[in-house]
Specification:
This protein has 14 helices and seven strands. With 306 residues, the protein is of the alpha/beta class. Helix 12 runs parallel beside helix 13. The protein binds S-adenosylmethionine.
């Protein structure tokens, strides 16, 4: 979705654009090359990503800064570069290819490695801790809620019975053994369980709404926020935040004039979410579940009840 992201940010005014999930700086680099009016602040909670992005953006000295930060710390991060607001926020959520493809990070069932899954390796909680200590009902709730896993209860029972489950390979095996054979033939059966654990380990759904609110508050007039989400829990949160900002939280019945006085602060640039084009899917199958949403901040004159 790189071209679409570039097109969405092309019209923003001059100022700081925050890449809140800078990763390997693929988007960041392309944005700096395509948009001469911006300076880019890249954030990531992963030390390896911060080092990689710093190296990738070294040629843009003066126009780029990279900080190790969780993206709900947007306010402090902007203050660090002497800015209060930004003309753009990009959130490309989830795990980077680097994290996913590095066996010892423990994100992938394709390798056998310790069950880790921490994006920020200075934090204490790992996926192994959850798998080892949570009681069966709590595990089942997690797999159902964050993984939308139909067989959550069977899998949770199997995990508890198989303890200790210390590695990605062993967990993938236990999950595969717990689901019906027909499910094993449809993609990897551990995919949803791994997703649920990763979301929990990294508090992904707790941090995201705080970060979106912070970004929407600091988006300067004409500035744009773009979010690419990779699972429905994330996408629902993004939709809810964007729709609320675009109505100001108006409670009046649709079709009737607003009498509640709510003031919209953004306009939606996309109705609903956008899926990747077939050409992108062919070259990058991981983009299959990507959903893009975007908004533009209204000018003070445009901010009035709908
Ligand atoms: C999908 S990758 C981004 C890839 C990037 N757009 C690129 O072009 O290389 C997501 C990145 O966001 C980081 N990340 C995820 N949640 C974060 C959070 N709450 N705060 C800061 N970084 C986060 C991850 O560590 C990972 O490096």
């Amino acid at each position: 979705m790189l071209d679409e992201v570039l097109d969405l940010f092309r019209p923003v005014p001059a100022g700081w654009l925050v890449d809140a999930t800078v990763g390997g700086a693929g988007h960041a680099r392309a944005l700096l090359e395509a948009l001469p009016q911006i300076r880019l602040l890249g954030l990531d909670r992963d030390d390896e990503a911060v080092a990689a992005a710093g190296a990738a953006l070294a040629g843009f000295a003066g126009r780029a800064a990279v900080l190790r930060a969780r993206f709900d710390e947007i306010g402090d991060s902007l203050a660090h570069v002497g800015a209060e607001g930004a003309v753009g926020f990009l959130f490309d959520l989830g795990v980077s290819s680097h994290q996913f493809d590095t066996p010892e990070r423990g994100f992938s069932y394709r390798f056998d490695a310790p069950l880790d899954m921490r994006m920020d390796r200075s934090q204490g909680l790992t996926a192994a801790d959850i798998v080892a200590t949570w009681e069966e009902r709590r595990l089942a709730g997690l797999f159902a809620r964050h993984g939308e896993e139909r067989f959550a209860r069977r899998i949770a029972a199997a995990v508890v019975a198989a303890r200790p489950v210390l590695t990605t390979g062993r967990l993938a095996e236990v999950v595969a053994g717990a689901v019906p054979a027909a499910v094993r033939r449809r993609g990897h059966p551990a995919k949803r369980v791994f997703q649920a654990l990763r979301v929990e380990v990294n508090s992904e759904l707790d941090v995201l709404p705080v970060a979106l609110d912070a970004a929407l508050e600091r988006l300067l007039p004409g500035g744009r926020a773009v979010v690419i989400a990779y699972h429905s829990g994330e996408d629902r949160l993004v939709k809810e935040r964007f729709v609320r900002a675009s109505t100001g939280g108006c409670t009046c019945p649709p079709g009737l004039p607003c009498v509640c006085g709510a003031i919209p602060t953004v306009r939606l640039l996309k109705r609903g979410s956008r899926k990747p084009a077939p050409a992108e899917l062919a070259t990058n199958p991981r983009s299959e579940s990507a959903r893009l949403r975007a908004v533009e901040a209204l000018t003070p004159d445009e901010r009035r009840p709908r």
